[in-house]
Amino acid sequence: MKRLINGIHLNILEQGNGPLTLIFLHYFGGSALEWQVIMSHFSAQYRCIAVDLRGHGDSEAPASGYSVDDMADDVICVVQELAIQDFILVGHSMSGKVALAVAAGTPNHGSPAGLQSLLLVSPSPPVPEPIPDDERQMLLTNHGQRKAAKKMLKNITAISVSQAISEQIIADDLRTSESAWTAWLTAGSKEDITSRMAAIAIPVHITVGSKDGALPPDVQTHMVLPYLTDVTLEQMQGAGHLLPWEVPAELAAFIAKKIGV
Hints:
Largest sheet: 8 strands, mixed
CATH topology: Rossmann fold
CATH architecture: 3-Layer(aba) Sandwich
CATH class: Alpha Beta
Distance between the termini: 28 Å
Number of domains: 1
Strand order of the largest sheet: 1-2-4-3-5-6-7-8
Number of helices: 10
Low-confidence stretches: none
Strand content: 15-25%
């Protein structure tokens, strides 16, 4: 469904019911579809919601407004609009940084009262993300080209996925708006929100693929953990960056363990 949230139309997937809500956010160049298998796993017990962030998937793509706090405000407004009370926020890669901003509170909103914990999958760090300049430029120059999207898929996965999943990953990459793509690479990924991390008073649980070539495990060790007080880190052996696509069963088990199922 599409809902008018924070002044723009966001596409939101929803399954299940329950007193606790799991909100899922996707990676840069991805969409809410990466969470469908995970949502189906938990929908018998929980309300599960996945959001296409602005400029991604089937959500509206405004010309501007793609800062980390802009996206965090969207998430907070989703919580308000859908009358969500107790919830856990699950962020992947780019949206891991967004989730940290939600938990810390933005200039426009405090941290939502019902937020119980963060589960972060290979999150972008609160410091500027360590993307080499030549790679950043290549991503900017080649966006929208199928060949580049296929190369990206190869670079950020370590476990083979089906042809259908490969095509969905490529399609999500290609349909990401130019405004969202450019804004993350030139601004959002470079933001430093470390000064706000001390405000996070809830548990943060992180998992990363041991063969993640986009945000390797040492990024979490050196660029994320030092800024958080109540945090755990685990690795999924042999997996790359796209854990919801590569190892959904293992990721579901990680989530279940952290929410006490």
